[in-house]
Design brief:
89% helix; mainly alpha; Dynein regulatory complex subunit 3; 122 residues
């Protein structure tokens, strides 16, 4: 996201330079372009155009920041869900193994009991 911010800053600087040059041309009456009235209204004075370009820059940075927050939130959520799933899988595996061991112990105890009864009977 740092690269996005750098690109936006570079864009802002170029746009501001172009706007100031256009403002100077308009003030000198050297403009060749036919600008719409709403665009021409921005080129009243330097403060107006600098504020408009600055506001645009701030909005773009805010959108970049919001997108970064969204991406981080999603990544953290995914990571948390993955760890929780792995944890649950390990708990299930462990319980199956403990059950298997208990069944084996029960089976061995039964075999041992059968051996003892067989020895007593003989």
């Amino acid at each position: 996201m740092v690269q996005c911010r750098d690109l936006e800053t570079h864009h802002h600087e170029k746009l501001l330079e172009i706007c100031i040059n256009t403002l100077e041309k308009i003030l000198k009456g050297e403009t060749d372009e036919d600008l719409p009235d709403d665009v021409r209204a921005l080129f009243v004075d330097k403060d107006t155009i600098v504020n408009a370009v600055g506001t645009s820059h701030d909005i773009h940075l805010l959108k970049i920041d919001n997108r970064e927050d969204e991406l981080l939130t999603r990544a953290n959520s995914w990571c948390t869900q993955l760890v929780d799933k792995i944890h649950q899988d390990e708990i299930s595996r462990n319980r199956r193994r403990v059950r298997e061991i208990n069944q084996y112990i029960d089976h061995m105890q039964s075999e041992l009991d059968n051996l003892e009864y067989t020895d007593i009977i003989d």
